[in-house]
Amino acid sequence: MINLEKGQRVTIELSKFTIGLGWDTNQTDTGFDFDLDASAFILGENKKILADEYFVFYNNLKSPDGSVEHTGDNLTGEGEGDDESIRIDLTRIDPRATEICFVVTIHQAAERRQNFGQVRNSFIRIYNSETGEEIARYDLEEDFSVETAVEFGRLYKKNGQWRFEAMGVGYKHGLDKFLEKYN
Predict the structure, then answer these.
(1) Are 75 and 33 within 8 A, CB to CB?
(2) Bridge partners of 40?
(3) Which of 42, 145, 154, 180 is disulfide-compatible with 117, CB 3.0–4.6 A?
(4) Alpha-carbon distance 31 to 124, whole Å?
(5) Which of 50, 51, 48, 90 is nearest to 69 (CA)?
(6) Residue 167: closest CA among 149, 148, 179
(7) Nearest CA to 12 among 127, 172, 151?
(8) 3-state DSSP: the chain helix, strand, coil percent, rounded to 5?
(9) Which of 56-60, 85-89, 114-118 has the lowest mean pLDDT?
């Protein structure tokens, strides 16, 4: 298993694997549960989503080609391990796809007065879906005190091979801004 640093890249040898995303919340009482949402944007050469259906999230759990499947929305983040997972099958991916970006946003962050400064132990990991063996992991070390969204990482195709880059880039906006960025 490879522990990645921000900006580090690793080649992914498997064609089928799972992206696990996890986090814990501090004991900050905002009066609401923390509902963090993982999303995947399947992009083409132009860095735009191939079509609306290639935005995979809690209301669209599977891409039309079947290559990216969200396993469902975790509304509280309670418990150990992955809070949300996204299954990847690169044998089925649309040939136009060159990148998949993984973003985590805080649902209704402004209304609930929540941000990533109130979240700890955040990570993204890649593991073999069949054996459970962890291939790579990136633990977010940054203190995102005002950010309400984080681009955790991305899979991208280079010279015919899929690679993963640990990103850890924070933003002070919600899912709507990512839709604008990638549409």
Answers:
(1) yes
(2) 56, 102
(3) 145
(4) 27
(5) 90
(6) 149
(7) 127
(8) 10, 45, 45
(9) 114-118
